[in-house]
Specification:
This protein has about 230 residues and is of the alpha/beta class. The chain folds into 2 domains: about 120 residues, 3-Layer(aba) Sandwich (Rossmann fold), CATH 3.40.50; about 90 residues, Arc Repressor Mutant, subunit A (Orthogonal Bundle). It contains 8 helices and 10 strands. The chain has a 5-stranded parallel sheet with strand order 2-1-3-4-5, sandwiched between helices. Helix 2 runs parallel beside helix 3 and helix 6 packs across helix 8. The longest helix has 13 residues. The chain starts with a strand and ends with a strand.
């Protein structure tokens, strides 16, 4: 797993990078918000762990710019800012999870791995979805994880994109509701399972232009199929 750790505290950065590398992760570090996006674009990580209080460019600004560029990598905000307002703002901008400092390393690892399961699976040649064919004109970008329809990026919220990537990985096959919930809402104990239905509803409306149908299979989950 490739992890981009954006943390300006040198001691924290070193300690955390070493701890995660011992747990089998490949960690790239960055301590400057102004350089974080360059590292993000160049490395195409599976997960980004992002501090908010960064020199140069604030972490929230980094996240907002990344999402504007369709960089769909799952992001875990890790910060000393514990205010609910900061958490809500970060999640609304496009973060996928949030942990306040101090934190438990085992919990951090578990949340990172849960987020990584949302990333496009990597093929033998190292390119995400490199061998996956387009489905109803939709294809997942091998670098950013963004979804394109007929060559144009689809306007999707991060959770809608996560749901669509999971369904595009197995078009025509049912994906369990519980599995989709894990991918769309990783490590969030405050979200009820019914929340996945809201994301499904929103995504279904955006798929109308593609000719694909998002079908509910009661007791089984959801699947994508082409319209007859």
């Amino acid at each position: 797993m490739k992890l981009l750790l954006v943390e300006d505290d040198a001691a924290m950065q070193t300690t955390l990078a070493r701890a995660l590398e011992r747990r089998g992760m490949q960690v790239v570090t960055c301590g400057d918000g102004a350089r974080a996006l360059d590292r993000w674009r160049a490395g195409v990580p599976d997960v980004v762990v992002l501090d908010l209080s960064l020199p140069g460019v604030d972490g929230l600004d980094v996240l907002e710019q990344a999402r504007a560029e369709k960089l769909a990598t799952p992001v875990l905000i890790l910060t000393a800012r514990g205010a609910v307002g900061d958490r809500i703002l970060g999640l609304n901008i496009g973060a996928d999870d949030y942990m306040a400092k101090p934190f438990d390393l085992d919990e951090l690892e578990a949340r990172i791995r849960a987020l990584a399961r949302r990333s496009p699976p990597t093929g033998a040649n190292g390119d995400a979805f490199a061998q996956a064919p387009a489905f109803c004109g939709m294809r997942v970008d091998s670098d950013s994880g963004a979804v394109y329809f007929n060559g144009e990026p689809m306007e999707l919220a991060p959770r809608e994109a996560a749901l669509l990537r999971a369904l595009l990985a197995k078009p025509g096959q049912a994906v369990a509701k519980e599995r989709l919930f894990e991918l769309v809402f990783p490590g969030d104990p405050d979200v009820h399972h019914e929340a996945i239905e809201v994301v499904v509803y929103r995504l279904r409306k955006k798929l109308a232009q593609t000719g694909a149908q998002l079908v509910t299979l009661r007791g089984l989950g959801y699947l994508l199929k082409g319209q007859a």
